[in-house]
Amino acid sequence: MSVTVGRCLLKDRLKEAKLTQVELALRTGKSKQRISDYANNHVQMSLATCREIAQIVGCKMDDLYEWL
To answer: For residue 58, what is the DSSP state?
Structure first.
């Protein structure tokens, strides 16, 4: 059985945490464009970035993506 990364759920997690993409960019030191790329499924986060963002928004790393 293999697991595939699906759609990024960052927009949902940001909404739940009451944070904007701009605020997340400032807190991570990443560009607003990079955060937008993650949120809109243009680029997948590295494990390190996924971990950092999960800590900031208060969720588990697994909660940042759909898993197929």
So the answer is: T
Give the tokens for residue 64: 């940042």
Q: By C-alpha distance, which of 4, 5, 9 is closest to 64?
A: 9
Angle between helices 10-17 and 32-39 (to 10 degrees): 110
The per-residue pLDDT for range 22-59, each reduced to its tens digit, is 999 999 999 999 999 999 999 999 999 999 999 999 99
Give the global pTM.
0.92
Q: Which segments within the chain are labelled E, that is strand?
A: 5-8, 65-67
Q: Would you give the distance in Å from CA 45 to the centre of its chain?
A: 7
Kind plus residue range of the DSSP H or E element containing 15: helix 10-17
Which residue reads 């993650």 in tokens?
38
